[in-house]
Amino acid sequence: MMDHAHDLASVRDATERLLTAVGELDNAAVTEPSRLPGWTRGHVLAHLARNADALVNVLEGRPMYVSGEARDADIERDAPRPLDAHLADLRESAARFEEAGAAPGDWSRTVELRNGVTDSARRVPFRRWVEVELHHVDLAAGYELEDLPADFTEREIGFLAERFTGHPEVAPTRLSDGTRVWSTGREADAPAVTVTGSRADLLGWLAGRRDGSALSVTGGPLPALPPL
Question: Between 4-23 and 83-102, two packed helices, what is the crossing angle to 10 degrees?
């Protein structure tokens, strides 16, 4: 069972780590490339702020974004801002998300995200936690997948494995960190491929942050994963 109160607290902690790291940058660093192709650090920061507001919309029953085009335009508009503007926007949007999360509501209700995707309201705080943690790594500012909280990494591996489960283009796959096993990919009588590695490397591969070269693969080639 998702514990939305725990996840809201975890979002708050992750946001503080992010703000501390961003506060050590300067205006020039904001314009430098992030680890996401085609995006500067400013694009990542702008996306994080607008995502907080988008998830407020979700919690309050409005469309997540006006449109995909408007989402992209907002990020492009805000990316070139100076550091202090990014920091203020991150703090203020995080506060709006925290306020929306603290409001009384039915956390068992179904909410709508982008592209017709639906989920339980109680999973929205975890989705925000994912955004903050992974995009902190994407900033290439000294925070790595190995630095992520252990409980977050385990849950996100499970979340992504579930996301690819039943996908016709993903080979039946068994994932293991040596102590725990997850299954993903299309249905089969038995997994055709076993992928083993550290949790950081498994998460990096599943989340499209690493190419999987550090993983051990038996039973076939490393499966190709579709974009998230």
Answer: 170
- Whether residue 166 contacts residue 183, with contact meaning beta carbons closer than 8 Å, is answered with no
Instruction: Check: pTM over 0.85? Answer yes or no.
Output: yes
Question: Can you tell me the distance from the alpha carbon of 90 to that of 98, in angstroms, rounded to the nearest whole number?
Answer: 12
State the CB neighbour count (10 A cutoff) for residue 215. 17
106-118 mean pLDDT: 95
Residue 84 vs residues 19, 22, 30, 88: alpha-carbon distances, Å: 11, 10, 10, 6
Specify the amino acid at residue 139: L
pLDDT single digits (tens) 75-97: 999 999 999 999 999 999 999 99
Nearest to 218, CA basis, from 187, 185, 161, 174:
174
